[in-house]
């Protein structure tokens, strides 16, 4: 397995160091080993060379790697996160990673959230006329192609079935946004019709967020568009006990190429203090191993993580007194013992 | 004061009956009295006559009334809520009610949410090409004019100052939706610059929802666009203890015309059982009285409501054993005693 590692900025560097320690250990027991190459994309490179996603890198990633492991982007010197946007949106679109998967473990159940990751309001189509005067009109277009919604939906519904889920909810807003909303409803209903055994419901995004907060266990699987998914998955992170625990996988449904990334940001305020929680990054390693069929070692790492987060070695954000490296030691220690 | 009353469907009828009882009582003590005329718009009329918002009604409302008091729309016979959309969006756009205000009372503080109510993704601009085949492309446009954002922002910031607020947060997504997002940021910064004493911060909608759930008291006032406001205000309702308690006011910033509406739906499942909580509708009466400068009677009603909701006469959704009318009796009884 060949992994392109992009630590990024701030605590991204620190949690990825933790993940690399764990990957090195796992590489020893996995057939063929795991090759990790580190790429220095991020704020420093952007400021020094005005380069976000370097030219030609999509080709390199596509041909020489199976997956990307990414830390986080964000730097106080670049308040609008132009570099992060350039790299992240460039990778999602360029590698056609249209499925963003985020598991949300909850007390009394768990939720699988799938966000479409390449189109919708993120297509960058639109513009502004009469800049600065009262007549100014600004337009951003929400665009979806049936092809992308279908590929997304087929992957997600099949994946939910693989995970043994019985129910899936489409989160939409077709009462206000009828064209793209209607396309999503149409594809959802058709694809569900082809997959007996999965029961579908549809909810408006506002009502869905309301119910998700009041009783998250009423849902099993959620499929939704790019912007709603952005919001819903952060709500999921809030409900599961914090961004420090959340992991995500962005998948190309045809090639299986995956980008694995913790959900938290670069947290410049705690960078360098040792307070960064590597749980999300290590959960990314779990998702990565599972995605490539290494179910057994993924499960072993997952249970080591779950145990370690209950000890004092956990970082302060989740109630422990440990540091990034102390928590990682605890995980490795438990991993060795299994 | 002349109020056009639109009970609508389901429990809308029931909670508006409660509000009319309270308004009748208050009308006795208010200079000039309160005239309430009931309009039968809703599901039955839609099904019988194919009429949502009847022709000419915008004119009537504009010239003969100061405000609308609305119950709720929604009927199982009209699954896509076409009638509710026709009436609600027709009133918002037709009467230019661009400011939607929702107070969110919380433990340890309270939050004022302002949602722009007429543009953004709700403008109904867009379409679909190649319907049904793989090449299908669906487009919904998010459109904002500077004029509307300015009028909205000026009203909201002034209103926040009137309420003694020190801080306001712009909720946006300019990193993904740059044209409208940028317009909102520009207007927000300019208008704040003219209003010393109000401190502004800007947050991405995903991060904002995350923090709102984890610690709602970190915000005082929120200004945001139509779709984000739709989601954020339902999250607010979830945090304040349920949709049954939430009220909203939609205001035309120039004329002061207002539409007052509880946030809950028509709840066909409990219609007719007496379980409907009239608290939201009665809070609408509080907002209405306050909007028209009747501060003293508004406060008296508000404290009667707050007291009554702590008694057994409260409806089951908020922990009581009462009914719609028992709770209203309790409120009236306390109102009389003041
Ligand atoms: C940085 C931003 C464009 C991005 C998004 O909205 O997709 C982020 O919020 C995320 O979820 O990865
Ligand atoms: C019915 C629907 C179009 C409406 C909206 O999204 O504005 C509703 O959710 C609301 O908030 O009043």
TrEMBL record, chains A, B:
Q: Which cofactor is recorded for it?
A: Mg(2+); Mn(2+)
UniProt xrefs under InterPro entries: ICDH/IPMDH, IsoCit/isopropylmalate_DH_CS, IsoPropMal-DH-like_dom
Q: Which UniProt keywords apply?
A: Manganese, Metal-binding, NAD, Oxidoreductase
| Database matches in PROSITE patterns | IDH_IMDH
Would you say which domain of life the source belongs to? Bacteria
A Pfam family recorded for this sequence: Iso_dh
Residue intervals of the Isopropylmalate dehydrogenase-like domain: 2-331
Keyword Transport in annotation: no
Protein name as annotated: 3-isopropylmalate dehydrogenase
Species assigned in the record: Kribbella ginsengisoli
């Amino acid at each position: 397995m060949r992994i392109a590692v992009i630590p990024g900025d701030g605590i991204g560097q620190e949690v990825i160091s933790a993940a690399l320690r764990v990957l090195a250990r796992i590489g020893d027991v996995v057939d063929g080993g795991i090759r990790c190459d580190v790429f220095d994309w991020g704020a420093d490179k952007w400021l020094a060379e005005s380069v976000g996603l370097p030219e030609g890198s999509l080709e390199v990633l596509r041909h020489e790697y199976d997956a990307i492991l990414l830390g986080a982007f964000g730097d106080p010197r670049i308040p609008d996160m132009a570099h992060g946007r350039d790299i992240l949106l460039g990778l999602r679109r360029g590698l056609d990673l249209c499925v963003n998967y985020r598991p949300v473990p909850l007390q009394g159940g768990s939720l699988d959230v799938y966000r479409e990751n390449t189109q919708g309001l993120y297509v960058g189509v639109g513009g502004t006329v009469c800049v600065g005067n009262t007549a100014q009109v600004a337009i951003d277009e929400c665009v979806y192609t049936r092809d992308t919604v279908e590929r997304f939906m087929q992957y997600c519904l099949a994946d939910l079935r693989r995970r043994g889920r019985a129910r899936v909810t489409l989160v939409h807003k077709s009462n206000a946004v009828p064209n793209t909303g209607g396309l999503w409803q149409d594809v959802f209903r058709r694809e569900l019709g082809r997959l007996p055994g999965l029961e579908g419901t549809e909810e408006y995004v506002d009502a869905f967020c309301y119910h998700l907060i009041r009783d998250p266990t009423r849902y099993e699987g959620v499929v939704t568009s790019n912007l709603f998914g952005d919001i819903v998955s952060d709500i999921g992170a809030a409900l599961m006990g914090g961004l420090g625990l959340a992991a995500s996988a962005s998948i190309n449904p045809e090639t299986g190429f995956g980008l694995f990334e913790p959900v938290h940001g670069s947290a410049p305020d705690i960078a360098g203090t040792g307070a960064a929680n590597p749980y999300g990054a290590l959960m990314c390693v779990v998702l990565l191993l599972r995605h490539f069929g290494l179910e057994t070692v993924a499960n072993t790492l997952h249970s080591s993580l779950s145990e370690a987060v209950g000890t004092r070695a956990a970082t302060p954000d989740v109630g422990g007194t440990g540091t990034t490296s102390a928590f990682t030691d605890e995980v490795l220690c438990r991993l060795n013992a299994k």
